[in-house]
Amino acid sequence: MVAVVIWGSLRRFTDGQGEVEVEARNFKELMEALSARYPGLKPQIERGVSLALDGRIYREAWFTEIGPDSEVVLMPYMAGG
Amino acid sequence: MALDNTGQRVFKVVGTRPPRPDGVDKVTGRALYGADMSAPGMLVAHILRSPHAHAEIVSIDTSAAEALQGVKAVVTAADFTPQEDEYLDDILVNCLARDKVLYDGHAVAAVAATSADVAKAALKLIKVEYRKLPHVTDVDAAMRPDAPIVQSGRSLETVPEGMSENVTSHCEFGHGDLEAGFAKADLIIERSFTTAATHQGYIEPHACLATMGADGKGDLWCCTQGQYNVRSICADLLGIEASQLRVTASEIGGGFGGKTTVFIEPVALALSRKSGRPVKIVMSRSEVFLATGPTVSSSTDVKIGMTKDGRITAGQAHLRYSGGAFPCGTVDMGAQAAFAAYDLEAVQTLGWNALTNRPKEAAYRAPGAPQAIYAVESVVDELCQQLGLDPLEVRLKNAARKGTKSSYGPTFDDIGLMATLEAAKAHPHYSAPLGENQGRGLSAGFWFNFGGNTCVTLNVNTDGTVGITEGNPDIGGSRAAISQMAAEELGIPYDKIRTIVADTSSLGHNDVTDGSRVTFSVGLATIKAARDAISKMCSRAAQIWGIDEEAVVWEDGAACPAGPNAGKFPPMTLAEIAAVSFNTGGPIAGHYEFNADGAGVSFGVHLVDVEVDRETGGTKVLRYTVFQDAGKAVHPSYVEGQMQGGAVQGIGWALNEEYIYGEDGRLQNPGFLDYRIPVASDLPKIDTVILEIPNPGHPYGVRGVGETPIVPPLAALSNAVSRAIGKRLHSLPMSPPRILKALSEA
Amino acid sequence: MKTIHVSTTVNGDAAEFICGPDESLLDVLRNRLGLTGAKEGCGTGDCGACSVMLDGRLVCSCLVLGAEAEGVTVDTIEGLAEGDHLHPLQQSFIDHAALQCGVCTPGILVAAKALLDRNPDPTETEVRYWLAGNLCRCTGYDKIIHAVMDAAKTMRAA
Fold first, then answer.
1. The domain that contains B54 carries what CATH number?
2. Among A67, B128, B668, C63, which residue's Cβ finds the most Cβ atoms within 10 Å?
């Protein structure tokens, strides 16, 4: 199981939890597992999310591997100037 | 690709300051920018814009314009198919208003004619019947339940029920127990701030030249930060295939985020398709101000608790941003960045975006961060003032560092904030004496930096030179930096390499030049492409020598036998291998295509001294020093240039620049005379101190540089003014009338 | 509208063109003479990107009528280098990385040359005030000022 920290405004779609656990080996599986378990997250995931893995931010890479002890933080899709 | 940690790497080319490859073109007037291209038979197009802040379009009659001699095509929203995708449809509606005009200057129709005079005369013949609607331009007013609704049905599921329909999104970030944190504080300060919308202010107005035939094949020349982005959006909006549209990026006369956009390009293509002639559109400066990307305007509340000895116990920020008449996610970035410089046990940021009758926001250097960090850094400074603490010591005490759980979630890896703060503390600027009516301010700043999709092709020419093809417009010297990294990796001189920016048909997709990504991502791809070419050259040498490929290594620009066992052959240089390449298998090229991650966040600290004239309210910047972690600085002159340029844009934001709207919702200052950006005589030398904390995500340790420098000046200037006059302002810009008002309230 | 025939000298060469009575010198240079080095940043004389010399006087060519070029000399950025030999100011701008996007550079070079023609040894403050009519959004002006000061030094030594 991977413990995923989500940002505050998504808690209303995860029964108030700021950290949720899902089964996932990579970013793609993580997004799918989150969408399946918490359908309220699906619109945000479809709009775009980034994944911070042990402090490093990934924007799109589906097959970024998630280790069992990784720190996993979901973030909005990053946009810059 | 991780940092090369094979001991201390000694660079030969990276870190030097060679002349930029486009230098001669740009000092002789030869470089071609957006408006500099023409085509035989070309038409000139002009755009009709709304004179109202908010109105329903009852009807548009273009018949008289079409009948005017010399007019070859007229287009309105009716010439385009509405898009299912909301992001695309917003771009389309912004290019040409569909049912309503949403802001003063919103485009309504466009005319292509044989001359500018005819096109302008034709605009006057277009009859638009408007029904004026109530408007709102202030973000706080727009969030009130009784506010005029700019667009309906645009709120995301994240918005709590009961808010105005203008509120399109809501976000929350943070961790820890706020209440417990504030309970531990000896002093809590809560303040509200506003910042005005500002414009990127690039000197080159948007311009394009479009050619499109009845066969659906098109060519577009335009000034843009991303030709691939322009291609995909235009192809979608015109209903053609991406492969049939070739977009060539001109030299770009500044962007700063504001040219990651599409405004006139689909319009020019549609006019060209309709008329069968090339069509050029060049915006005027007032059009640039009215209808291209300002930043968000913001209204923010910040509450921070501190102990007597300067430890921050809790921080909270409520951010209300408006990105104009269309939904905008910039507040998410501001809410994540607000407290990023601090190591906090309890932190919470809440953000809302609200629609207003203003132009569609466009990115501007570190979008969303300057507004949020201005408010946070102002309150931290006031806490220091009230508790009698040194603001630099307080920041050192609370600074985020490796292992800090960031305010937006992830734990920081190697970051350079402590190093920049220490450098500021040690710098003579921090202890220099100040005179009467003078004050010193400081602020930290932060930006995420991005990677993104990137392709590079590196061709080894038979004369021993190298051509690099990359896909990101060179906005401030990137061709030089890319050539330097290739020279470093290949082991050949910098002047043997020429880097060009490809059109969309010459290379795979490249994300826009944004997020301070180019030197990092394109540089990384260039290093990888060079390594690809090197492995091919080693293989050719192995073939020539009749030994195993594995027995050949690349050293100082030449293939060499890996050791005494590999055989005794003199090194074979890149030029020697290239010269016989036709005989050994054909041309040699290296490629790399990827989606870069690991850009590495960036921190900066700015120090500024100001003097305020109590009679005029004018603020003079006396001394300015930028400290920034740049990772490895590839071309230090252009790194310094980014730091100086960003700082000066921030100074303009802090002191002068603002979008001013009248009661009628119309923009009152769409020109450089009334929207005053800093000029040379306003400024002192902008001193720079580059710190090089290697980014673990890049083989040379390169980090993005370009955006962070615009973040700290807002609070640094505000803190300096507050110390100069003994009064704190809570609104930007701190224009002379605002300073005089603050002084008169003493 | 009746057009006007104009005979003038541009960068030392005789030039003739016809233009509308309300057509700016900038439009003439760019659209009729193919000299696109001068840029239109604002069209209102606020940014200096269109700076040229008119009979030895520094002007914003967007505020001058094409017809005013009759019988006088016009010098633009395209005439600054002599053949392939860059003017010291041009070389100095490259050496000091005094440009980023480069769109303001032609105007600034023309303005800086006008300054050094009348004052070969300006102070930093004099350079900053002289160039206050030329907007640059990329550099924060620092390297530009340095490049002009350094070019002045080179030219004094020559």
1. 3.90.1170.50
2. B128
Indicate which CATH number applies to the domain containing B547.
3.30.365.10
Single residue among B248, B275, B291 that ends a domain in this structure: B291
Q: Residue for token digits 């038409």?
A: B43
Tokens of B582: 């036709």
Subunits with 3+ Cβ pairs within 8 Å of A are B
Helix (H, G, I), strand (E, B) or coil at C97: coil
In the three-class reduction of DSSP (H, G, I as helix; E, B as strand; rest coil), residue C125 is classed as helix
Domain total in chain B: 3
Q: Would you identify the CATH topology of the domain C4-79?
A: Ubiquitin-like (UB roll) (3.10.20)
Q: Does one domain contain both B584 and B607?
A: no
CA distances, B277 to each of B73, B213, B248, B267 (Å): 10, 8, 18, 13
How many whole angstroms separate alpha carbon B287 and alpha carbon C36?
21
C9–chain B Cβ distance below 8 A for any pair: no
| C64 Cβ contact list (under 8 Å, min separation 6) | C24, C25, C26, C54
Q: Do B112 and B252 fall into the same domain? A: yes
CA distance B190 to chain C (A): 34
Nearest CB to B673; choose among C46, C86, C94? C46
User: CATH second-level architecture of A2-76?
Assistant: Roll (3.10)
Extended beta strands in C37-103, E state: 51-54, 57-60, 73-75
Domain ranges of chain A: 2-76
How far away is chain B from the Cα of A62, in angstroms, using its nearest Cα? 11
Interchain CB contacts (distance < 8 Å): A and B: 108
Residue A50, token pair as written in the block: 């980034």
Every domain of chain C and the residues it spans: 4-79, 88-157
pLDDT band for position B6 (50/70/90)? low
- B105-122 pLDDT, tens digit each: 999 999 999 999 999 999
Q: For the segment A39-48, what is each residue's pLDDT rounded down to a tens digit?
A: 999 999 999 9
Radius of gyration, alpha carbons of chain C? 16
Q: Do the domain assignments include residue B195?
A: no
Among B170, B363, B599, select the one facing A9 at the smallest CB separation.
Answer: B170
Is B597's CB within 8 Å of A52's CB? no
B633 and B581 part of one domain: no
Question: For the packed helices C142-157 and C88-95, what is the interaxial angle rounded to 10 degrees?
Answer: 140
Q: What percent of chain B has pLDDT over 70?
A: 99
Any idea which architecture C88-157 has in CATH? Orthogonal Bundle (1.10)
Residues B337 and B345: their CA atoms lie apart, in Å, by 16
Mean pLDDT calculated for residue range C133-140? 98
HSE-up (13 A, CA, CB side) for residue C129: 5
Q: How far is C-alpha B181 from the geometric centre of its chain's CA atoms?
A: 35
Query: Which chains, if any, share at least 3 CB pairs under 8 A with chain C?
Result: B
In whole angstroms, give the CA distance from residue A74 to residue A52.
6
DSSP letters, B58-113, are EEEE-HHHHHSTTEEEEEEGGGSPPPSSHHHHHHHHHHS-SSEE-STT-EEEEEEE
ipTM of model: 0.98
* Residue B256: closest C-alpha in chain A: A81
Query: B interface mutation test: which of A14, A59, A66, A73 has the most B CBs within 10 A?
Result: A59
Running DSSP on this structure, what letter comes out for residue B715?
H
DSSP string of chain A, one letter each residue:
-EEEE--GGGGGGTTT-SEEEE--SBHHHHHHHHHHH-GGGHHHHHH-EEEEETTEEESS-TT-B--TT--EEEEEPP---
Residue B666 DSSP symbol: -
Q: In which domain, by residue range, is B740 found?
A: 297-449+600-744
User: Alpha-carbon distance B26 to C90, whole Å?
Assistant: 9
Q: Do chains C and B touch (3 or more CB pairs under 8 A)?
A: yes
If you average pLDDT over residues B205-220, what whole number do you get? 95
C106 in contact with B, Cβ within 8 Å: yes
B32, B254, B672 ranked by CB distance to C101: nearest? B254
